Every structure is written in structure tokens, then in C-alpha cells.
Amino acid sequence: MTDQHKAALAEGRAESRAVKNYLEALEENKPKRGRRRTKESIENRLERIEADLPTANPLNRVKLIQERMDLTAELNASEEPVDLSDLEKAFVENAKGYSERKGISYAAWRELGVAPAVLKKAGITRGS
């Protein structure tokens, strides 16, 4: 394998990694359908769970415990702001080459949830 071939493979892996990381972050932080839960509504539900736990039968108790764990995780996650700027920057630097090599259209990126402004910064246009 030539040095040029090795460099091309390394470049492809770097592009793929940058694109994958950004798309995964977008997916994880995609707005959920329905009414947003507030911190107060989560805390109220946690209080009701704590009140119901002592009298719940074992099957309902395990469901309440799991709900408590899920709500606590949601509450902790909502307190940490998500910063996609570094991932977006890496995506912008690598997406055009990745798109051209893999034959991915503007429409495919949009359907996946990539914002038009991000695609424009990356140099991916509707005609490309």
C-alpha cells in the first residue's frame, strides 16, 4: 500500500468520524414531540412517586423505581446545556468531501435533520 493510499484512507476515516459524531449528537438532542416537560413538572412527578412507593405492590414498585431513575436522569440532562459547536465545526470541515465521495445529496442531509445554514457553511448546496 502506498503512502498516498494510506493518507487517503486516514482522511476518509477522519471525515467519517467527524460526520458520524455530529449526526449522533443531532439525534441525541433532537426535540421531542409533544409538550415539553418542565423542571417543576418532573420534580412534582418525583414527589408523587416517592409518596406512592411505600404502598405500591412489588410489580408497581419496580415500575415506579424505574420511572424515578428515568426522570432523575432527564432532570440532570436538562440542566447541562448541549454545545454542538465543536462537532458542527468538524462536520463543516469534512462534510463536503464526505458527501461527494459517498454520493450524499443536500436533500438527504436535510431529511436527517442537518440545518440549511450548516450545509451552506459546509459548501453543500441543493445543486450538489
Report on the structure:
With 128 residues, this protein is an all-alpha fold. The chain folds into 2 domains: 75 residues; 48 residues. The longest helix is centred in the N-terminal third of the chain and has 26 residues. The model has no long low-confidence stretch (mean pLDDT 88).
Describe the protein's topology.
Elements: H1 3-28, H2 39-52, H3 58-79, H4 85-102, H5 106-112, H6 116-122
What is the count of β-strands?
A: 0
Total helix count? 6
The shape, in one word, is: elongated
The averaged pLDDT comes out at: 88
The N- and C-terminal alpha carbons lie at a distance of 32 Å
Brief account:
With 128 residues, the protein is mainly alpha-helical. 73% of the residues lie in helices and 0% in strands.
What would the keywords be for this entry?
single chain; mainly alpha; 2 domains; 73% helix; elongated
